[in-house]
Amino acid sequence: MNSDQAQKRAEKLFKKEERAQDGRQAMVEYKAHGLAVREKTVRLKALRLAKGALPLSA
Q1: Taking the C-alpha atoms of 40, 42, 45 and 49 in order, what is their torsion angle to the nearest 10 degrees?
Q2: CA pseudo-torsion sign 33, 36, 42, 43
Q3: Which of 17, 18, 14 is nearest to 6 (CA)?
Q4: How far is residue 58's CA from residue 43's CA, in Å, rounded to a whole number?
Q5: How far apart are CA 34 and CA 32, in angstroms?
Q6: Quick one: how far is CA 2 from the chain centroid?
Q7: pTM
Q8: How many CA atoms lie within 13 A of 36 on its CB side?
Q9: CA gyration radius for the chain?
Q10: 14-55 pLDDT tens trace
Q11: Three-class secondary structure of residue 10 per DSSP
Q12: What distance in Å separates the CA atoms of residue 49 and residue 58, rounded to the nearest whole number?
C-alpha cells in the first residue's frame, strides 16, 4: 500500500468515525428533547388538574 492509498484510507476511516460520533450526539439530543417534552407535559397536566380542583367562588 503506498502512502497515497494509506492517506485515503485514513481519511475514509476518520470520516466514518466522525459520522458515527455525530449520530451518537444527535441521538443524545433527541432523547434529551423527548424527556424535556414529557416532563413539561406532566407539569402542565398537573397544573390543569390543580386548577380544575379549585373551588369556584361565587
Answers
A1: -130
A2: negative
A3: 14
A4: 28
A5: 5
A6: 42
A7: 0.66
A8: 6
A9: 26
A10: 999 999 999 999 999 999 999 999 999 999 999 999 988 777
A11: helix
A12: 20
